[in-house]
User: Fold this.
Amino acid sequence: MTDLRLEAVSKRYGERDETAAIALQEIDLTVRDGEFFTLVGPSGCGKTTTLRTIAGFEELTAGSVHFDGTEMTGVAPEDRDVGVVFQSYALFPHMTVAENVGYGLRFRAPPAGTDADDRITELLELVDLPELGDREPGQLSGGQQQRVALARALAPAPDLLLLDEPMSALDAQLRESLRRQLTEIQSELGITTVYVTHDQAEALAISDRVAVMNDGQVEQVATPQTLYQEPATRFVAEFIGDNNVFQGAVRATEASVQSDGGTVHDQHEEATVAVGTETFTLPAVPNGTDRVTFCVRPGALSQSADRNRIPVTVETSEFLGETVRVTGRWNGRPIVLQLETVPERDELTVGFDPAAVHVIETE
Amino acid sequence: MLYLPVGVVFQNAIIDEGVLTLDAFSDVLTDPFYVGIFAEWVADPLAIGSHLGAVAGWLAAVSISLSIEYPVPGVGLPVPWLGIDTPAVRGGLFGFTAYQAALSTIASVALGLPAAYILANYEFRGRRTIRSLTILPFVLPGIMVAVGFYAMFAQGGTLNSVLGVVGLGPYSFIEWNPLAIVIVAHAFYNAPLVARITVAAWESVDIRAVETARSLGASDRRAFLDIVVPQLLPAVLTGALLTFIFTFMTFPIVLALGGLQLATVEVWIYDRVQRLAYTEAATLAVLETMLSLGLTYAYLRYESAQTGLSRAASPPPKRPLFPDLRTALSPRRLAIVGYGVVALIVFVGPMLSLVIGSVTDSSGLTLDHYQFLLNRQLDGESFQTLPAIAIRNSLLFGLGTLAIAVPMGVVISVLTARAGRVGTIVDTLAMVPLAVSGVVFGIGLLQGLVFGISLPGGWRLQVTGTVAIVVAHAVAAYPFVTRNVSPLLSNLDPAMVESARALGATRYRALRDVELPLVASGIVAGAAFAFAISIGEFSSTVILASGTDSYTMPVAVERYLGRRSGPAIAMGTVLLAITAASFIVVDRVGGRFEQ
Assistant:
């Protein structure tokens, strides 16, 4: 199989510098062999452009793409051995389903031991559409078309599978079942996969690792769990799941830093930080820190916690079954809570444990 | 290929014996024969006071009266007549051309809108067929339509035969009011265009928006006025503007039905060319081209300001036209029936008259007219116009046109499908042939390529009349290829080509396997249009073929028409048969010509 490396990949549209739109800015990424890797971010962040540079549809302004250590600059899309599934599926309307699936086999031999017809049958079975080979694409439902597109991309046994928002045109239930089917097929085949989505929940649910992109740059690459618990930037903290992000000035530092032999030992157990008129107790921050940006997940804010308590004016409550998502305000700042029951009063007091705080940035 | 001939015409108009001069223009612009009262304005532009005084005096002399008239001679049918009595205005040649174009536009819109209403709102047998038949006028040769109208309205025409049954007539309609016949013939051409564009707009109206207006308190009528009409208006204006452009440049219909008595600019240019007055012709041609280019520019600006028509998610529902007898007798349904009769007379009458006229004469059924054509072919002298040669030339030129126009049209489609400024510019330039009349183009080719152009180094660029005719046809025809291929090409999902390439197809293979099969129907339809355009092209052919044996069927029709109408009508019927065949091809492969 294949690993994939992007080195300082930049993409600029337009000729002149002052009008050039920067699509990608020095992207470095490594996708490991067999990994399910997702690019996630808001629209216009450059995730699709990144995928298209991997497929060879976009020429790079600078940087390079490597498959298994081989530089792919100047290699035409048809010579890259990648399978691509687009948001629009892009099935060929003038060919049957079987002809669509078999199209890549006109140019690349099917895996050893099979002929083209066997391979088409095999792939249609893999995506659970064994009977539909003779149909026209127009006769299929959206979900079926999506699976045909996947079968078509996989038929020539590509080194790399690239999926560009393949689920976004489908309804929520279908999306979930297809997502499960996709991850099963992916792990069964062990094919290196790059998946593009704007849906952070989808990214967390299906990926081995996720790259969060914003404004043509990679904000963080991590496993879904790390991304959720330890966002590296304010953007990631706010983009991935609900979050309460605060910024404050460090007020009290109790102990000093002992330095022995170049290693810095941070002695602080806790720090006191002023946010507006309130002061919070946070985990220790490095000495000399003036300001700190930190976040507290809604689930960590509870009415029973006895530290860092703040009054919240309730604005909306959404009943989600197991939990209730409550939005409100504290000192004019938006606050998101996750409670077990719909609050009965408009005013709540909630608190959080310093251990539940994740510090994003210090300066 | 397009710009060279136009450039030659321009050069001819401003260069007199090697000297750059605008004399030819000032001669035309100050001659009341051409520009009417505006000649004074051009001659003395600073005398604004006296010009304004003249306008005020004219306005004061306008009187409006209402009286009972008996407009049909010999029939005591009283009609309230709104008389608008205006003092005579000398509009000159250009004024008259604009005047008949304006009347033709009004007639086309008046005839086209009811058709659009019926086609967009009612379901009935044959609706789809009629809707697709609205593209027919584009492939009908103008001279053939003119002969059809002649066969219907002439002294011995079918209309007089029908009236004779009830003891009326015969009337000489054409001599009595040739302008009216010309205008109806123009409506024959352009009303379907207006109807087609309007139906497309009507069907793109989202009925949910109308329902929203109703739920907000608008009456049926108000909702129509507030929601539907504003969405139809741009389409109607587009149709009207195009009609005005086309009828401003009208040529074969006026030439055949009105002659020099009703000369428009185009007919006069043709006449000047026949009399070898090339400088005057070129000057007129440049003026006409500037006017029509201006109009076309206005049209393109207007069109691009419109948002594209997409089919609405929920188009208005269609009611059955005649669900039961009671509804069928309601005033609205009766009005529709009445319109249907008028439409039948205007659209089917001339074509039917053409066929009937070709097999009848004053004594009844006869094959004499075809016999004449056959005899002419067998016994005719080589200087005479021989039918078989006309048919052969038409078919050969048609094939030649295909060979040039199809590749050219496809290449232009591919270029315009690319996004960005280049695409837009190419698209606009590619539509310019619509604004340059065939006569002007013919003169350019004649004076440029056929008479020859001296090139540096003693070379001379010169082509034969035949080649020039094919070039002229190809230029007239390729926009139809482009207009058929471009929508298919721009609807192609670019991800489709990218999918093919990711699967291992080269760019060329992807073009062959994916793009071409998907636009093939557009290419075939465009080719059929191109062929039909070539078969029917009259304006530039008649100039390039004059005095040679490169005449085509339409030219032959016109030459016969000058002497005896019967053979012309028979020749027109042959033309109709061949044109109909290429239309059937267009229909089979789902051709289109939106706007």
Remarks:
- The longest strand of chain A covers residues 21-31.
- Chain A has eight helices and 21 strands.
